[in-house]
Design brief:
- By secondary structure, this protein is an alpha/beta fold.
- The model has no long low-confidence stretch (mean pLDDT about 95).
- The radius of gyration is 18 Å and the shape is globular.
- A 9-stranded mixed β-sheet has the order 5-4-3-6-2-1-9-10-11. It has a two-stranded antiparallel sheet with strand order 7-8.
- It has helices at about 1-15, 45-50, 60, 65-75, 75-90, 95-105, 120, 185-195, 205-210, 225-235, 250-260, 270-280, and strands at about 20, 110, 130-135, 145-150, 155, 170, 175, 180, 215-220, 245, 265.
- It holds the Pfam family SIR2_2.
């Protein structure tokens, strides 16, 4: 039965009916090419990397946005952004297995809540639309910026210039390139989630095209309220079920939450899922 579900998921991703939703776990196998060090992606590893390997106070270790807010208050917003840009934009990383898989399929729509560049790299030879999340910015009602990639370079575009027939890469938490900016601190998330709930963080063309879609949550855990609040609005208007979550050992809290959100948990890890994909392809 589970193999049938996995097979159905794979087919759904391939035909664009199921949207990959990438969490920190998809970067677990990514390493620095020169150093072999793992890429910091989840909350704890990001906090330790930001604080030069030293744990912060327990109340700050609870969640990366809280720790990042502390750094911003002490050293300024720029210090947090410089850390993220140095981590994700100025280091040479290996490519994760999930991205090897996605590179073969080139799904028409992907949501990636990480802040690295792996997703853009696998679409480097494919024209696409990039959506980058914004927070705490004046002069606009929106909490996103759009870019068109022509196969060689990015240019910023307005909503009416977006070609909805192109693949859409949604990076709600920001990224280093082509225009540096992040959702990172508590203050960023408060602003972003407020506007996301109001409908100002998602372009109109995407609101229309996402209706009825289902989602495949890869490397995503449903433990932290911040990530859950972002997710619930990003998948608004989802189909039935809303999606599938690959979680090898889900907690009771995750089971309850996913049941409430109509997300079916598939008790497997990413590596086993990719092994199933390899068998289907063969």
């Amino acid at each position: 039965m589970r193999n049938q579900i996995l097979d159905d998921i794979l087919k759904g991703v391939a035909d664009g009916e199921i949207v990959p939703y990438l969490g920190p776990g998809v970067l677990a196998d990514v390493r620095g090419r020169e150093t072999g060090e793992p890429m910091p992606a989840d909350s704890d590893s990001l906090i330790l990397a930001m604080n030069k390997g030293r744990p912060m106070a327990p109340k700050l270790m609870f969640e990366f946005p809280r720790a990042a807010m502390n750094i911003e208050l002490k050293r300024g917003r720029r210090a947090v952004y410089q850390f993220l840009t140095n981590t994700y934009g100025q280091k040479n990383w290996t490519r994760g297995a999930v991205f090897d898989w996605l590179a073969q399929l080139k799904p028409p729509y992907i949501i990636d809540i990480n802040r690295d560049l792996q997703l853009q790299q696998i679409y480097a030879d494919t024209p696409h639309i990039l959506i980058k999340g914004l927070a705490r910015i004046g002069g606009t009602d929106f909490r996103y910026v759009l870019f068109h990639y022509d196969g060689g370079s990015y240019r910023q575009i307005d909503n009416h210039d977006a070609d909805p027939s192109l693949p859409v890469l949604f990076k709600p938490m920001g990224l280093p390139e082509p225009d540096t900016g992040y959702i990172a601190t508590d203050a960023d998330y408060v602003d972003y989630i407020t506007e996301l709930m109001g409908g100002f963080a998602i372009p109109a063309f995407l609101k229309a095209s996402r209706r009825g879609k289902r989602y495949l949550f890869c490397g995503m855990r449903f433990i932290r309220d911040t990530e859950r609040m972002v997710m619930s609005d990003l998948i608004y208007d989802a189909g039935t079920p809303a999606g599938y979550a690959l979680i090898a050992n889900p907690s009771d809290k995750e089971r309850r939450y996913c049941a409430k959100q109509n997300i079916e948990i598939v008790e497997t890890d990413i590596s086993e899922f990719l092994e199933t994909e390899a068998l289907v392809q063969s």
